[in-house]
């Protein structure tokens, strides 16, 4: 093997395997892997992939559900010098074909039940549950002994969620992700003694890069679940097998709304992480009241930065429940106006970043890359304010701010006001075209009790200035969202425009 410096994603696992070879690294279903076994499986899987005629730099799609095989596939691509392309397992049709085609994936690792959704002519290999799957071939494959990838090599095309436009492939290097792992470890207090469960989709950067890989770096024992099933999560917590859980606000809302939430013994849970979208303050207050000893961490960022940018720790929530915290170890952040100039503390502006965690740009999209990376800073598209102590509070996505009668209204503030009504299970506030108001503030609500449009409009007017209160309230059975929990406001605007 050609000597290398080891600042790569796969070297994270290799070091842990040398340090604690016999310790359990991953449990999935009835399979369990020690660190030594997992490291060996990754080396063999790297050989399997290269035997398919692939060469370093080739893109390999990954279109599968959570599993140990999914993790091995990602780490094997990293070790072989291939570029992993995680694909949302819920995508079908043109959305699926777009990412596979735009990335130029030469092979797609998939689950047998999903392979039929892929476009004709796409070359596939099963991840698991097939006689010739990646997992099944490990026993016959030799360990990979080729050259190590370099830290500046691409390791992943991390596609944005596409909530406002077509997804873009953020080009992540080994160096960027390794920096992000260290930021996550230090900001989130991750340690080998933690007992984390990983139930959100592994294709998504938050579960994979903020939690699973950093936890492998510190040597923890990780449980991977197919999905965030409330019964299974509560059972694992009560059994003492899990004390650390990450979930987006939509999942935390679902757990808090379960009939057995107040009855189950959840005292073993020590660390609660939330992120991927804004957590309504009333929901967070309800969780903290029910579980007063639980440490809550707000994790904020986006795909292009690996994705962790800021963290609000357990000791920082008092007095700033709506804040997303301060920048992590390797992130520098500012709040600027439309001309890129710093705005005074307390003034809304766009967050911009400079960091070794940042992507190299967007795959095959030079114009979008140039627009996002201006004046040496990455422009996030998030509207926020910074206080005198360096804490950031996200007001909205720049594209989600509502222009009502010439006055800008942040949808988050309206949502927080409506969440204080006991009959509101979920709410998304959008702007809809209006002849008088330009955009009418409109609340789309999922009910959990009897309530009318007039009731909620009156409730909002008690909490908000008149111009911020909704002009309309629409009721739906559920809000559209992607697998990471982000509500698709673009879809709501298209549906109700």
Would you mind describing this structure in some detail?
The longest helix has 16 residues, at 35-50. This protein has 13 helices and 25 strands. It has 497 residues and is α/β, with parallel strands linked by helices. Strand 3 (59-63), helix 3 (68-80) and strand 4 form a beta-alpha-beta unit. The protein is 28% helix and 25% strand. Helix 5 (174-187) crosses helix 6 (205-218). It has a 9-stranded mixed sheet with strand order 2-1-10-9-11-12-13-14-15. The protein is globular.
Secondary-structure map:
Blueprint: H1 9-19, E1 24-28, E2 31-34, H2 35-50, E3 59-63, H3 68-80, E4 83-86, H4 93-103, E5 107-110, E6 124-126, E7 154-159, E8 169-173, H5 174-187, E9 196-198, H6 205-218, E10 222-224, H7 230-238, E11 244-247, H8 249-256, E12 271-275, H9 281-290, E13 295-301, E14 308-312, E15 326-327, E16 332-336, E17 349-354, H10 366-372, E18 373-374, E19 377-386, E20 392-397, E21 402-404, E22 407-409, H11 411-419, E23 424-434, E24 438-447, H12 453-463, E25 472-475, H13 489-496
Parallel strand pairs: 1-10, 3-4, 3-5, 5-6, 9-10, 9-11, 11-12, 12-13, 24-25
Antiparallel strand pairs: 1-2, 7-8, 13-14, 14-15, 16-17, 17-19, 18-19, 19-20, 21-22, 23-24
